[in-house]
Design a protein that fits this description.
Structural class of chain A: mainly alpha
Order of helices and strands of chain B: EEHHHHHHH
CATH topology of chain B: Four Helix Bundle (Hemerythrin (Met), subunit A)
Strand order of the largest sheet of chain B: 1-2
Number of strands of chain A: 0
CATH architecture of chain B: Up-down Bundle
Radius of gyration of chain A: 19 Å
Helix content of chain A: over 70%
Largest sheet of chain A: none
CATH class of chain B: Mainly Alpha
Shape of chain A: flat
Number of domains of chain A: 2
Structural class of chain B: mainly alpha
Largest interface: A-B, 49 and 48 residues
Distance between the termini of chain B: 60 Å
Number of domains of chain B: 1
Number of strands of chain B: 2
Oligomer: heterodimer
Helix content of chain B: over 70%
Distance between the termini of chain A: 67 Å
């Protein structure tokens, strides 16, 4: 098995504590940062994306894998983003277009 | 699998003989196949998050009202439980690769225990909702506004599908434990263990988004 493993136990534990801190932040953010809705969602999704990045890079070993695996994830994310962008036009403009034609 | 020592020969178009070699140890291929499976999982949950985002945008007030009624403490506890279970799974894999088999086995069992605690907390959370008459197609829920019906429909569907993934994960971990005992999975041939750990990380990753969207947004009013 020609596989180079570089994720060490100490790094794994460090990432765990980073995830623990971010999870605590997720839980407490609305209590100590009284933001409006869009800011709360923005901050929460930002924390979730950082956590996902840490999980993907270290816990799922993507940092140490060959590029093909990272491409698979990237293609999945791009595909999903296209779905989200197209649907967002529907969500935002649906009634406006009806108004436009009537 | 055929373990006979007979050599199998295959002939190319020019009639030259070639020995057929199949030792079933394609590490990269096993992982690549599993990553393609994870791709489909991302699409499955991604599609559900898309539906959530669409209706959240269109029924924002209803979604916030419904979100505020969820038990944030139970959801939060489950977030930490799942994180700890992921830690044990990943650390178990590192131990296993280092040849510390008994340590790895203990960590697989701990992951299973934490997964069962997750499901138990989820059970109490769902039962509380159901006792309040909140479940898909209930009379009390159907009498509410459209956005609230949609929120709880998505809540039960998405956390339910996530729960099914947890149950499958427990079965897979038990299977890995069994394979380690049988010495089919060894510190030199650990791809099955590694793929199950990848699956568990994906299950954790889905919850990383489920928790803030369902439980926290209601606090942002």
């Amino acid at each position: 098995m020609a596989h180079q493993e570089t994720l060490t136990e100490s790094l794994f534990i460090k990432v765990f504590f980073a995830l623990l801190a971010l999870t605590t932040l997720t839980f407490l953010q609305p209590y100590f940062m009284h933001q409006d809705l869009s800011n709360t969602i923005g901050i929460q999704m930002f924390i979730a994306v950082v956590k996902t990045f840490l999980i993907g890079a270290y816990y799922m070993h993507l940092k140490y894998e060959q590029p093909l695996f990272r491409w698979i994830v990237l293609i999945a994310l791009v595909t999903l983003s296209i779905f989200f962008i197209i649907t967002s036009f529907d969500a935002i403009f649906r009634n406006d277009i009806n108004d436009f034609f009537t | 699998m055929d373990h006979s020592s007979e050599i199998e020969i295959i002939y190319d178009k020019q009639g030259n003989p070639h020995e057929v070699v199949d030792f079933n140890d394609d590490y990269e291929g096993s992982k690549l196949g599993f990553w393609f499976f994870l791709f489909t999982e991302l699409m499955l949950f991604g599609g559900m998050f898309l539906v959530f985002a669409f209706y959240f945008y269109r029924y924002t007030d209803n979604f916030l009202e419904a979100s505020a009624t969820l038990n944030i403490l139970l959801g939060g506890i489950n977030t930490f439980i799942l994180l700890i279970s992921t830690y044990f799974m990943g650390m178990g894999l590192i131990n296993f690769k280092n040849g510390e088999i008994s340590k790895a086995k203990v960590k697989i069992l701990l992951t299973i225990v934490f997964s069962i605690i997750f499901l138990t907390v989820k059970y109490f959370e769902w039962m509380a909702e159901i006792h309040h008459g909140i479940y898909p197609d209930s009379e009390i829920l159907n009498a509410k506004e459209n956005g609230i019906i949609l929120f709880f429909g998505l809540y039960f569907t998405m956390t339910g599908l996530h729960g099914v993934h947890i149950i499958i994960g427990i079965a897979l971990m038990a299977w890995v434990y069994f394979l380690i005992n049988k010495e089919t999975v060894t510190p030199k041939n650990y791809v099955v263990f590694e793929n199950v750990a990848l699956y568990w990380d994906l299950v954790h990753m889905v919850w990383v988004f489920l928790f803030p969207l369902f439980y926290i947004t209601g606090l942002g009013r």
